Amino acid sequence: MSGRSQASLLLVLGATVLAVSAFSGMYANYVRPGFRPALVAAGAVLVLVAVLSFRREQRAPRVAWLLAVPVFAIVLVAPPALGSYAARRGDAAPPPAADHRALGAGVTDLTLGDFIGRATAGGSLAGRRVGLTGFVVRAREGWYVARMRMACCAADAFVLEVAVEGASAPPEDTWVRVTGTWAPGRQPAIRASEVRPVERPEEPYELL
After folding, report:
1. Which CATH architecture is the domain 84-207 placed in?
2. How far apart are CA 87 and CA 99, in angstroms?
3. Which of 5, 34, 43, 114 is the least crowded, having the fewest Cβ atoms under 10 Å away?
4. Based on the number of CB atoms within 10 Å of its own CB, is 63 exposed (0-12), middle (13-18) or buried (19 or more)?
């Protein structure tokens, strides 16, 4: 690959990284939010190196931009955050450690990890109203409110899911907020008193 072609590819790579991290929240579909400063810095360095290379190599040939087609696809046809398809085929996350802080008298919003940890340990959810936010995964026996949990990036994500009882299933992959009470049983479950659609969060994953 010529120096001009390398500079062209570096420029597009750097611009793409900046587009998904500095100028949008698209990066959160793939990595932890804490990686944003590193991505912005990496994108800026790539653009700077490309500009300096262009100054030495002058104008890049048009054919060099064909190398950028796969990179443009990341922005133009970017895959969304993992959803129900990945949840069905992924491994379930091990039960998180229980949070033993007392819950208030009203509705307490919990992460799915916190709810599952408390449900596994038993006791702290009894008689308490909670709110859970996640996407819908439909199954033969009912449906689940689910969310993916990641340590580093989407590649290592595990599924967290809570069975929903007492409410009809919304369309698959719809983001919902489920309000209800813990339903004791063999699997973490919530007996719903309300299910309403919500916007997908800017940070769709729960973090380890």
Report:
1. Beta Barrel (2.40)
2. 24
3. 34
4. exposed
E strands present in 55-174: 108-109, 129-139, 142-150, 158-165
CA 47 to each of CA 3, 16, 43, 151, 183: distance values in angstroms, whole numbers, following the listed order: 15, 10, 6, 29, 54
Give the best-scoring range by mean pLDDT among 12-21, 53-62, 82-91. 12-21
Residue 140: the pLDDT is 86
Cα–Cα distances (Å) from 205 to 5, 30, 45, 141, in that order, read 37, 9, 28, 25
- Domains of the chain, by residue range, sit at 3-76, 84-207
Structure tokens at 123: 């006791």
Helix axes 36-57, 3-21, angle to 10 degrees: 150
Cα 169 to its chain centre, rounded Å, is 22
Read off the pLDDT of residues 37-82 as tens digits, 9 standing for 90 and up. 888 888 888 888 877 877 776 555 555 555 555 555 555 555 566 6
